[in-house]
Amino acid sequence: MTNWKPLAGPIVTAVVALSTALATVAGPVVAAAGPTRRATYSNAVSESFADTFADPSIIQAKDGWWYAYSTADPLRSGDDPGIMHIARTKDFASWEYQGTVFNAENRPSWATATSGLWAPDVRYIDGRYVLYFTVTDTTLNPGDDSAIGVATSDSPVGPWTPTDKPVVPPRPAPGGGFLWTFDPAGFTDVDGNRYLYFGSYFGGLWATRVSADGLTATGRATQVAIDNRYEGSYVVRHGGWYYLMGSSANCCAGPTTGYSVFSGRSRSPLGPFVDADGIPLLASAVGGTVMLTQNGNRWIGAGHHAIATDNAGRDFIVYHALDRHQPWLNEPFGINRRPMLMDRIDWVDGWPRTRAGAGPSDSPQPTPVTGSGLGITAANPAAGGFRGLTAGPADPQAGHTALVHGSARTRSDAPGHQVRVRLDVQGSQPLRVTLGSKSRRVRVTLDPQRGRLEVTTAKGRSARSESTALRGSSWRTLLVEVHGSRILAQVSESDLGDPMAEVRLRARGFSLAEGPVRLSSRRVLVDNFSVRKPAREASRLVSVPRAGELLDADEFSGPLSSAWSWVREDTSATVSNGRLHWPLTSTDLVGASNNAGVLLHDTPDGTWIAQTKVTLDLGENTVRNFQQAGLIAYRNDSDFARLSSVAIWNTRQTEFGRELVAASDGRTIYGGAVVGTPAPTVWLRLAHTRNAAGEHLYRAATSRDGSSWTWGAVWTFDAGTAPRIGLVAHGGADPAATAEFDYLRFYASSWPGRSR
Fold it and tell me: Tens digits of per-residue pLDDT, 634-667?
């Protein structure tokens, strides 16, 4: 996770062309006429070894492999669920299954025999791997008393040794039972303090300090996101901000799963976290900037993620999703089929967006950049590309190492102006890394003896320096990035957006010269050494539907026209003073209820946007389940998509819910996605188009002011159906509330940004 946004540029799907010395990429390539092209991967990346690899966590281990870990589920239909799974890759184009984290012999002693072991999160802490995980039921209390467990290993594949008690024990809930203590995520801050994030809908998201070894919670926990909204927390530091990311809605509703990922940021790892609109994640009308949501292709329910950074500095989101055409395992039936996916992240205006807002990919994508340029063998730097670098001793964790004893330099020059150098370092002696030439250079000194990380830029006789405290021992990752006059140096253990030391320096007028990468030390070991030109990221989000010519409208200036029709007419709904007034009643459309009124309007052909403005004051913090009002795409009572401003327990949300009859077994299923933050008055849009298969696609958007829109998830309807657009208002009459609609309008539109 890098802290500098590369130069603005158009959306690209590959790293910009590099100098000849940097153009060769380690790993498989695809044959092509002309220049060599990057290898590609296609989602789901776990397809070769698993149909289900949910709640993935990922880390680049000291042996150079990337290791991914998943929840305990059967990998394929009919398989044993295992007790959390492990797979690895060198190039992200091919994967190898590595077995399970636990078995009957080393399963945590305090987990009940029927407890689920879910949602692993892996870190490298003080020379060993630390794996956090959810235990859904412990032996410590009667009832479902979830907790966070932790295990350690010298190897990323184990054997893993769990501690004899939870790192976060079960937490009693007010009124009885236990709060959901799920989905851990570790984080190390630049001051060396360690944190653990955890929680779920029942209780919210929390953060606690943990001990230096990561195994014991210390102090009081701090709530960082409101309950009934987020789970699957993950935190990174980027550009001096702390980003809390969380998944929202139902993870596991088969073909109606609308799971999505949102983010907020703070200047402190303990918050308060706010979204791009400044809305807190702790607010009743809860905030969250869309990071990943479904786009209408095969993938739905995209969420519960981790972040990986490639050698060009490009961040990738690793997550699970469901294929809407095959959402369940066949045996045992009912387990959601959630393979592992991966897509690039673009940091646009300071916010992480999956493929610049395009969402999950279902076509070939360039693999993350692995290996190194300059002829360096990243996993064995002494094998080539350097002068003066010799083979070091084989390391139990890293394997091949290179020894810096005196001075060494690359045989080829690294590019000037922009460059990214990453290496793992072990040893107690200082290491100096120098880039550029004598006239324009950057020197980074990692000095364990003085406990300092120092960055110095030199332009002729002019020099600038900045430094910070350096902590830790054993293997550490040193990252150096130069983007023109901006220089970043980070030291981390896990290299997961959690630097334990960071220096950012801005040297105005400075530009790095081309030159070799020089290393000097009395004696340190280095490994996983890469030199790359940084990736270019998108500077803008992909285009979204825009309203054009007005096609049709009802401004409620008189009685309802013949374009309207009712399903179960609600005689309490009236039109006056330019508004449709619709008192809420204790009715619903979900499941077997089907007693709520639906007011439908004739629908244009082609591609268009339906828009309404609705006022419904749901208050704050109080429980008003499930009062709501909004738009609906309606085929029948068991086949609809409803976009409404809704009270869900103590929160206020805009939910884009989907109900349908499952093709597999005829069950009626409801699930939903969350879009933007509601307000007492909210503007809602449904954009409609058809895909090549003739399916209807509806994309939801919400606004708090009628001009700035948040676009969210897409739901599909089968080809050959004829959904209509309408209005709904229902969900409870206590306390009494009335929804007021100002209009229903249809605009001509296009459907841009449907990148695959």
Answer: 999 999 999 999 999 999 999 999 999 998 889 9
C-alpha 601/C-alpha 604 separation (Å) is 10
Within the chain, all domains assigned CATH 2.115.10.20 are found at: 53-366
Distance CA(216)–CA(152), nearest Å, equals: 13
Sign of CA dihedral 714, 720, 725, 727: negative
- How far, in Å, CA of 264 to CA of 266, rounded? 7
Q: Secondary structure of 255-302 in the HEC alphabet?
A: HHCCCEEEEEEECCCCCCCECCCCCECCCCECCCEEEECCCCCCEEEE
Sheet with 66-70: strands ordered across = 57-60, 66-70, 83-89, 96-102
| Rounded-to-integer distance, Cα 359 and Cα 317, Å | 11
The answer for 330, left when phi > 0, alpha when psi is -120 to 50, beta otherwise, is: alpha
Q: Is a pLDDT exceeding 70 seen at residue 5?
A: no
> Is 337 within 8 Å of 51 (Cβ atoms)?
yes
CB atoms within 10 A of CB 566: 14
Question: What integer pLDDT is reported at residue 41 of this predicted model?
Answer: 97
Per the CB < 8 A criterion, the answer to whether 45 and 342 are in contact is: yes
Q: What pLDDT digit, counting tens, does each position of 703-713 carry?
A: 999 999 999 99
Q: Which fold does the domain 53-366 belong to in CATH? A: Tachylectin-2; Chain A (2.115.10)
Q: Residues 436-474: pLDDT tens digits? A: 998 899 999 999 999 999 999 998 878 899 999 998 779
**Residue count of the chain:** 756
Selection from 345, 377, 366 nearest residue 531 by Cα: 377
Specify whether domain 381-532 bears CATH 3.30.1360.140: no
Q: Give me the pLDDT at residue 20, please.
A: 30
Residue 393 burial by CB count (10 A; 0-12/13-18/19+): exposed, middle or buried? exposed
Tell me whether strands 299-309 and 462-469 are parallel, antiparallel or unpaired. unpaired
Asked: is 550-748 a CATH 2.60.120.200 domain? The reply is: yes
The tokens describing 503, both together, are 């220096």
This model's pTM is above 0.90: yes
